[in-house]
Write a structure and sequence with these properties.
This protein is mainly beta. It is 0% helix and 60% strand. The protein is built from no helices and 11 strands. The strands form 2 sheets. Strands 2, 4, 5, 6, 9, 10 and 11 form a 7-stranded mixed beta sheet that branches. Strands 1-3-8-7 form a 4-stranded antiparallel beta sheet, with no helix packed on it. The chain is elongated and about 50 Å long. The N and C termini lie far apart (37 Å). The relative contact order is 0.32.
Length: 118
């Protein structure tokens, strides 16, 4: 499975950005798609995930500001980020889980930088 993320960039505080991530390759059995982020000097943390059935989970720090969605037909996940804050600055990584052939697999995209200026 390959994950290609798009949509990072520079935005002022209070602004919006939309990230997208397309999964390709051996996509049979993909379950959850989601986003994690890693700020400089910090660990990689969950931002939001969404299952193939549409159940979403958010980090407390982004609830009410970020919305995750997915297009199962296109194997794409989106993250709409509103009311951005400087503390949202990080590299955002697309993530996928897959159940196939009795095994459990995780995949990561290459990361896209989001910078929020104050």
């Amino acid at each position: 499975v390959q994950l290609q993320a798009y949509g990072g960039g520079l935005v002022q505080a209070g602004g919006s950005l939309r990230l997208s991530c397309a999964a390709s390759g051996s996509i049979a059995g993909i379950n959850a798609l989601g986003w994690y982020r890693q700020a400089p000097g910090k660990q990689r943390d969950l931002v939001a995930t969404i299952t193939s059935g549409g159940s979403a989970n958010y980090a407390d720090s982004v609830k009410g500001r970020f919305t995750i969605s997915r297009d199962n037909a296109e194997n794409t996940v989106f993250l709409q980020m509103n009311s951005l804050k400087p503390e949202d600055t990080a590299v955002y990584y697309c993530h996928a889980t897959r159940n196939f052939g009795g095994g459990y697999y995780e995949y990561w995209g290459q990361g896209t930088l989001v910078t929020v200026s104050s």
